Amino acid sequence: MSKSICFIDGLEGILKYREIDINKLVGLPYDAVSYLLIQGELPNEEELADFSARLRGEREIEKGVIDIIRMCNLNIDSMEALRTIVSYMSQFDPDLEDESLEGNTKKAIRLISGIPTIVAAYHRISNGKDPISPDPALSHGANFLYMLRGSQPTELEAEVMEKDFILSAEHELNASTFSSRITASTCSDLYSAIVSGLCTLKGPLHGGARLKVMDMLEEVSSPENAEEFVLKKIENKEKIMGFGHRVYKTYDPRGILFKELAKQLAETNGDMIWYETAEELEKTVLRELVEKKGKPIYPNVDFYSGVIYKYLEIPPHLATSIFAIGRVSGWIAHCFDQYSKKRIIRPRAFMLDEL
User: Fold this and answer.
1) Which of 34, 144, 186, 327 is the most exposed place for a label (fewest CB within 10 A)?
2) pLDDT for 335-349, tens place per residue?
3) Each residue of 76-107: pLDDT tens digit?
4) Residue 26 DSSP one-character state
5) 209-311: which CATH number, 3.40.50.740, 1.10.10.10, 1.10.230.10, 3.30.420.40?
6) Taking the complete model, does pTM exceed 0.90, yes or no?
7) Which sequence positions are flagged as catalytic?
């Protein structure tokens, strides 16, 4: 793993996984990008076929896990259930105590494959429906939508979901990745590290922001209301969800890609309302904050991804969990890197003043 897992240039709007630009990676299968993050190199045809077969072979989850889902409070955000169920899964992993690279790889594959099944099963059970068994013939994105709905998605929907997972897969030392690395640095098991990431991702200032974008779109409801909404937020000094980033001082490259995907879905569905509402919100924010005040507040990864979820008819309470489906490969890559260092992360208290 000599290559840097992730590179970000916040001034130029550049994002790379393992030194490969995100604009190139977004056209690959999620399995290939997952392999790249964890192994450090893109797979050849044979390696990809083997890795995909292993992932697809671990999509089914234990009946006991389904029973635990049925015991959850089904009126809560899905992240509450997901973190509990992933922790429960660890008790039945035959390789839980095997901290070798192969043992951790087996756990990694079960996590990458099992988390989409958990999220889909939770959604269906919470709506009084039986879970749908995964289809090993479908891609990562298509299979998730199939398990969620009980019917196969269109080709475009499957492509958009696959790209969503890729664009969500990795983003350097964000809060949830750092949380996972800290847990891994203690030589705790991979499940514990991933649960740490899930707990951190849940926060509204991190992964939970996507849910807030979806709520905002509902509140604004039409392009005609967008300008007034933004102006009131600015006047009251309130945050406009989906805008601004601690790293990017220009347009988030993932946001550009998500915007194009949102437009494709809108045009294909013959329903432009959510896309046009988002565009009007963006235009007003850029005019009022970027052009007039010179503030580098551009759409981030959550803004147009929230629009995509509206077109895919994904309920807001699933938004953060779906983010986790993509991000788990990045967390695992960082955990593997941290395990190789065999050194605990121990910041000093005086560093808090710098955060």
Assistant:
1) 186
2) 999 999 999 998 877
3) 889 999 999 999 999 989 999 999 999 999 99
4) T
5) 1.10.230.10
6) yes
7) 245, 302
